[in-house]
Write a structure and sequence with these properties.
Number of strands: 11
CATH architecture of the largest domain: Alpha-Beta Complex
Number of domains: 2
CATH topology of the largest domain: Spore Coat Polysaccharide Biosynthesis Protein SpsA, Chain A
Largest sheet: 9 strands, mixed
CATH class of the largest domain: Alpha Beta
Helix content: 40-55%
Number of helices: 7
Order of helices and strands: EHEHEHEEHEEEEEEHHH
Structural class: alpha/beta
């Protein structure tokens, strides 16, 4: 059997759809909630297979690892609250080999913006390792864009089926997420001693827009394709603008002594 681990915060609009899609897949769904102020927890309590852990926010990787430790089974399916497995993926998950813990299963995502499928550009599709034995892998402690740290000898197999990723319900939601990720990325780079160069601040975002909108055919997604390419470029600028600000603040504090 699989345990499913999902981290949440203020996901009342989406989490019900995700949990409904998991019906019949697992009798152990761990919700790790980091301070929801909406009805997220109330919605989750409607599903009998759900166990709710309430915690403070520890970062993406560390919060997911809390849920993994709480899980009933060693095999873990890690999902975000806005990710819904399709029927083909559910069939694949029910048929995977749980005897060989040296296998990690990756899953391809279909990305949606305001319920519209995005077929081109940066969001056309992406693949992530999501099913693993917890004795062989755990999430690292990166504050953003966390990855699985896996033991040597692991083989990765891609499952048939897709995760439908409903990433943003509105433009405002998308902008807020972008700004939050940019801040977290800046903090990560600052701790690693990285600097905000002219190229990172000004040149790379422009080339990123050209790549995603033109070369990867983002313009074929219409308004949404333009918005995504433009916001991705802005994110590229913003994370280094925040980093420059952190660097200047640190220098000012050092000189004030």
């Amino acid at each position: 059997m699989l345990s499913v681990v999902i981290i949440t915060k203020n996901e009342e609009k989406q989490i019900g759809k995700t949990l409904q899609a998991l019906a019949g897949l697992s009798d152990d769904i761990i919700i790790v909630d980091s301070g929801s102020t909406d009805n997220t927890i109330a919605v989750c309590k409607q599903f009998p297979a759900v166990t709710i852990m309430e915690t403070v926010w520890l970062g993406y990787g560390a919060t997911k690892n809390l849920g993994i430790e709480k899980a009933k089974y060693d095999w873990i399916l890690s999902l975000d609250a806005d990710e819904v497995p399709d029927e083909k993926l559910k069939q694949s998950l029910n048929q995977i080999n749980l005897e060989n813990k040296n296998i990690i299963y990756s899953i391809t995502r279909q990305n949606y913006f305001c319920n519209k499928r995005i077929r081109f550009g940066e969001w056309s599709s992406d693949t992530h390792m999501r099913v693993f034995n917890r004795s062989m892998a755990k999430w690292n402690d990166a504050p953003v864009h966390e990855d699985l740290d896996v033991k040597p000898g692991i083989k990765v197999i891609n499952l048939e089926g897709k995760i439908k990723h409903y990433t943003s319900a509105s433009v405002n939601d998308y902008i807020e997420k972008t700004m939050n990720y940019a801040r977290l990325h800046a903090e990560k780079n600052f701790k690693q001693g990285k600097k905000a160069s002219f190229i990172k601040l000004y040149v790379a975002p422009s080339f990123g827009f050209i790549k995603h909108y033109f070369f990867e055919l983002g313009f074929l997604d219409g308004y949404e394709g333009y918005l995504i390419a433009k916001t991705t470029a802005w994110y590229g600028f913003l994370k280094y603008a925040y980093l420059r600000d952190l660097t200047r603040q640190a220098a000012a504090n050092k000189h004030s002594w």
